[in-house]
Amino acid sequence: MSVSAFSHPYLGGLLGDEETGRYFTAEAEVAAMLAFERARADAQAKAGLIPVAAAERIAHACGAFQPDMAGLCDATARDGVVVPELVRQLKQSIGPDAGKHIHFGATSQDVIDTALMLRVKQVCSLFLARLGELDADFRELDASFGHRPLMAYTRMQAAIPITVGDRIGAWREPLERHRERLERVQASSLAIQLGGAAGTLDKLGDRGAAVRLAVATELGLVAAPQWQSQRDRIAEFASLLSLVSGSLGKFGQDIALLAQAGEEVELSGGGGSSAMAHKQNPVAAEALVALARFNATQVSGLHQSLVHEQERSGSAWTLEWMLLPPMILATGASLRLALELTRNIRSLGAS
Amino acid sequence: MSVSAFSHPYLGGLLGDEETGRYFTAEAEVAAMLAFERARADAQAKAGLIPVAAAERIAHACGAFQPDMAGLCDATARDGVVVPELVRQLKQSIGPDAGKHIHFGATSQDVIDTALMLRVKQVCSLFLARLGELDADFRELDASFGHRPLMAYTRMQAAIPITVGDRIGAWREPLERHRERLERVQASSLAIQLGGAAGTLDKLGDRGAAVRLAVATELGLVAAPQWQSQRDRIAEFASLLSLVSGSLGKFGQDIALLAQAGEEVELSGGGGSSAMAHKQNPVAAEALVALARFNATQVSGLHQSLVHEQERSGSAWTLEWMLLPPMILATGASLRLALELTRNIRSLGAS
Amino acid sequence: MSVSAFSHPYLGGLLGDEETGRYFTAEAEVAAMLAFERARADAQAKAGLIPVAAAERIAHACGAFQPDMAGLCDATARDGVVVPELVRQLKQSIGPDAGKHIHFGATSQDVIDTALMLRVKQVCSLFLARLGELDADFRELDASFGHRPLMAYTRMQAAIPITVGDRIGAWREPLERHRERLERVQASSLAIQLGGAAGTLDKLGDRGAAVRLAVATELGLVAAPQWQSQRDRIAEFASLLSLVSGSLGKFGQDIALLAQAGEEVELSGGGGSSAMAHKQNPVAAEALVALARFNATQVSGLHQSLVHEQERSGSAWTLEWMLLPPMILATGASLRLALELTRNIRSLGAS
Amino acid sequence: MSVSAFSHPYLGGLLGDEETGRYFTAEAEVAAMLAFERARADAQAKAGLIPVAAAERIAHACGAFQPDMAGLCDATARDGVVVPELVRQLKQSIGPDAGKHIHFGATSQDVIDTALMLRVKQVCSLFLARLGELDADFRELDASFGHRPLMAYTRMQAAIPITVGDRIGAWREPLERHRERLERVQASSLAIQLGGAAGTLDKLGDRGAAVRLAVATELGLVAAPQWQSQRDRIAEFASLLSLVSGSLGKFGQDIALLAQAGEEVELSGGGGSSAMAHKQNPVAAEALVALARFNATQVSGLHQSLVHEQERSGSAWTLEWMLLPPMILATGASLRLALELTRNIRSLGAS
Asked: How far, in Å, CA of D102 to CA of D119, rounded?
């Protein structure tokens, strides 16, 4: 099935992003869940909650474990979440002795939310790097063409001449703020989720906080108290994704309008038409607008899922699973296309 | 990449729908596009616009054609649409003589929009059948439990006793209206798209309307004038999908609330917990709520894409590609889960 | 407070619509609620459920009744709905004898939903009339300029010449379908809501259906069974509003792009700039785009409110109250502005 | 017209918020616009750009000015923005001499965006104060009932007992993060907008930056470069509003579910029913859910308006005007209702 344009055999060429997509394969999610289990077992062993030997066996088993994906699929259909079956398979692969210490004191949400945070952290690094490259590209364009005149348009009407540099500033400056936002989120908002059955770490006695800190440290995440029904970090991150793609959508829209007028931009690359051989379509620019509107659509659903009832809402949580990965992909694709577009700009402004 | 929950190796077990998904593989889309090309060539041959032999060669070639998917992917990245490269591959497979009659008088949007309509038509049939099954299930539940008392709740407070039949009516009746809506859409709104480069069928001379009628008849679609920048049919269909999943979300929410209270419903199946062996979670009911909220989120983007500028908006059209297939999948999954849920209801109301 | 742009002392000049707004004053809502109470009493008297004299007294009192708005406001804050206090005030104005027959067998939702349907019906007539006027305007423009050449643009690039008539067709044709949709909704979907406390008309004995039919007939609404937790009619109507404003947004976007290029359209009217005296901004065209995107945003929330739990969801219902009236206003404003814009078109295409 | 539930004569009792609404009257906006004009004139006089006497006359006139609202309304309909007419009225009131220095070097967007920021700043203070009160309320509830047992629910099923304090933590902790977010936004993101016709302060020569700094300092806003087509600050603020109302929606949903079960919460206040005298509806709790979903709907449109083309998009900007004030009101109402609700909690958990 190729229902998603982001992973579609041919639409993926336009709208996908391989580098971002690597964090959202089933294999990558399983690997992140195993990293959590391993860090948990290790921290619990150090806290004297489970035998050291069991933690070592778990670490070893996690390294070698190959999930039975068909089994995970059937069980997710039944349980609404993959973790019970993953834990069962993991226990089976490890044998009853150490196996009984798998997943000790944890719950599905600990595994899945932490595995998400681990990958979001890597995504933040990727996006920060790309924003840095974009910044450099815009500065280079500014160095080349910034001094040239450009007609300003307000309310879609010619206003007064500005410079190309003024316009480039309107594209580049928001990205600087987005980098600050992303850095802040990465440093302070990507927290481990560890709470146990109902958020109270009831099985860890007085070692709960210490174990949480140790696991967070091992995984490079913020050691905050459990947040399983507090989804503001998720909705905030989604909003930030949409800010990024929204600003890039403005860049795309501006380039498409320049390309329509035809006199103040020169682009290389660009798309062919099946009916008109003479046309060269500003494909990346238009895709940036589409991706901005896509994320602006999705962000609403992640704000809806803030209404996450009681200790865990199956429906609000499942809604996140449907919405967040495509938003991350769309943002990755948006950054990729913006870089492609800046590099295809041969000229800006009146020479 | 498994970015979409609908086609994810294990989340797909919960949220996917294989039967619906068959219409949204790349292969299914290519097949539908070839069906269009074949019908177009045939109609144009009958109208004397291209040689009959060429049309026969095209029909034959379309039957045997295997696309080079990697080539389609690269070209879509460049052109923003798959058709120019698909046409090129098709021409190559058929040779220059008949090849020059491939895609004659058509444009990318004719191929893609018509190929979409062909599959939407089949999806309507599938959904109508499932709505019929659901209707039967609800009537059966009504026959079994309809006479029993049920506490009505208004504003989340116990109100007065009603009957189980009253509640089932609130689940079943909207589905009856949805069937009428779907039947009307299927009969009158799924139109062929055939307009050529800018919608005027400029290359077909005075045969434009006749060719359009012939292609529509062959493909079983409504023979309306081109609608390439008039996307109301798409947004209307998306709205209808969300009406369906929304009504099923109400059913899911009601079952989840009944299951929470615990005394007026008995369910079989249902999900296990990784931390609490005693629990049986109303997984399908919760997923119905999530799918309803998913579609309610997406529908906004398809209404945004009504602002489809000029003769073809690359950005508004691309936005549709990202939004509509997941909505169709979500609706298919919603119907599948609702059928699963009705069949897992062992008892409703106070016995 | 002027929080709404639609009723704002000066923004209302741009974005409001007086004629539509008349149906959404508090006074208009109270009047519609009284019309319901009167028709209900009359039908119940005819059915022998309440004394004829009481119904006459009620009819008379409803004609003269002036609500204490401050009292309604305080009570709505407390009760979450205006009806209990409105009924109390009405009873007080009529005296205890007939007063006890006020609101007999009905519930808040009966009063409010029916009062909404009554006004939606009038709104449909208003919008149908305006769509008819727009159709005439477009036909007139077509008669004047339809034969002229116009450059088609696909993907924001010049494609091939079409005619002005082709472009006008893309603006006019969807409106024809919207008229059909509105007529169908008006004829078959605007149903009375009459169900009593939990939808079962429990207090009307075997006269429930007869009373419902009589009230519906009196009020000119469809006599459907109660639909208090089945909100598909509301979400469908909202979707249709957004289809209308979306198609007009495409018209606005096209005019704004034509005005930017500057050679193929000539407009009268249009806005001044505070900084640049030479500019003439295509204000109505831009407002049409904004209104389209506004409705495309709102429609999502009305689909969210399809998840209307149990016999009455306070939260889903309240959400409708916040979303639907502004959507109706936005659609009215959109039609008003489209008419203004068509009449300000002095020339289209190359002369 | 009472199209907005927030300023509706009786719905406003439930959904409005007088204190927040004060910042969104037409009068408050005009006053903020005049504050901008005054600060601008003052700074320009100090920079030697306009005569000191003219600045004094302007300051004096701004203090006494009473706008002709009907005139503003007509002109906004024509110009799409109120500023040209406001400037004209202001000039008329002040006479030609000083009048020609009104609005010097500025443009509509400078006036309106800065006037918005001034009021957003006050709104932030109001919301911070309310979040502080809510924090105190939750701490008090925790002190009273925190030690009591409460049944945790995951996926709408009883899980294991937790404490009331655990649940209160899930309500209170996100608000702490929201306060930090609001403080950060207030300190660093509420920037003056001052750019002139096309953002380049073309008429201020080399004094542009100095004047901007002086105006920002006078008005208590951040002295950032013009951001007229960079709307990330607006969309970020809107996202934050929705984070706040979303977290409060979770609180409301939890209380409504507790009230439905009926054993672990005791509420005073609460709403009456028109049909069932025995009911006490959790009105504020339900309204919190509705307001959360309202804002989650609106936030999408403010992200759409990030695609703000060229130097000023009439359509994207107008869209903000329709969306942001209602979101601010909804957030204010949400905070007001949450405070009302915490104070109506008589008991939580099993005693």
From this structure: 22
Average pLDDT of the residues in C201-222: 94
Query: What pLDDT is recorded for position D278?
Result: 66
Which residues in chain C are closer than 8 Å to A269, comparing Cβ atoms?
none
For the cut 80, the answer to whether the pLDDT of residue C265 exceeds it is yes
Instruction: Assess contact for A43 and A219: CB atoms under 8 A.
Output: no
Joined tokens for residue B339: 């059928």
Backbone phi, psi, residue B8, to 5°: -75, 140
Tens of pLDDT, residues B269-322: 766 666 666 667 899 999 999 999 999 999 999 999 999 999 999 999 999 999
- The answer to whether C178 and C247 have CB atoms below 8 angstroms apart is yes
pLDDT digits (tens, 9 = 90+) for D142-194: 999 999 999 999 999 999 999 999 999 999 999 999 999 999 999 999 999 99
**Residue B117, both tokens:** 């309509």
What is d(CA D127, CA D248) in angstroms, rounded to the nearest whole number?
13
Q: pLDDT at position B320, please?
A: 98
* Residue B190, C-beta contacts closer than 8 angstroms, at least 6 positions apart: B117, B120, B121, B124, B221, B222, B233
DSSP B254-268: HHHHHHHH-SSEEES
Q: d(Cα A58, Cα A64) in Å, to the nearest integer?
A: 10
Identify the three-state secondary structure at position A159.
strand
- Asked whether B283 and A80 are in contact (CB, 8 A), the reply is yes
Q: Which of B286, B222, B215 is nearest to B248 (CA)?
A: B286
CA B317 – CA A310 distance, rounded (Å) = 40
Contacts of C264 (CB under 8 A, 6+ apart): C150, C151, C258, C348, C349, C350
Nearest beta carbon to residue A80 from set B9, B83, B286: B286
| HSE, side-chain direction, 13 A CA sphere, residue A190 | 25
d(CA B240, CA B246) in angstroms, rounded, equals 10
| β-pair partners for B180 | none
* Paired residues of B191 in beta bridges: B222
Which of the other chains make 3 or more beta carbon contacts under 8 angstroms with chain B? A, C, D
Chain A residue closest in CA terms to B86: A274
| Three-class HEC string of D106-130 | CCHHHHHHHHHHHHHHHHHHHHHHH
DSSP state of C281: B
Note whether A187 and C290 are within 8 A (CB): no
Query: Could C236 and B243 be called an inter-chain contact, meaning their C-beta atoms sit closer than 8 Å?
Result: yes
Q: Which residues of B touch D (CB under 8 A)?
A: 153-160, 256-257, 259-262, 271, 273, 276, 279-283, 286, 300, 304
Task: Check CB contact under 8 Å for C300 and B295.
Answer: no
- Alpha-carbon span D287 to B33, nearest angstrom: 49
Structure tokens at C142: 């077509």
Read off the pLDDT of residues D105-123 as tens digits, 9 standing for 90 and up: 999 999 999 999 999 999 9
Residue A226 DSSP one-character state: P
Query: Which residues on chain B are in Cβ contact (under 8 Å) with A111?
Result: 274
**CB B157, CB D258: distance < 8 Å:** no
Backbone angles phi, psi at D100, to 5 degrees: -70, -10
For tokens 């706008």, name the residue.
D67
Burial class of residue D342, CB neighbours in 10 A (0-12, 13-18, 19+): buried
pLDDT of residue C98: 87
Dihedral sign computed on CA atoms, order C80, C84, C90, C95: negative
CA distance B106 to B104: 5
pLDDT for C224 beyond 90: yes
CA dist B237 and B228 (Å) reads: 16
Beta-carbon contacts of residue A240 (< 8 Å; ≥ 6 apart):
A178, A181, A182, A185
pTM given for the model: 0.98
| Residue D304 to residue D320: CA distance in whole angstroms | 10
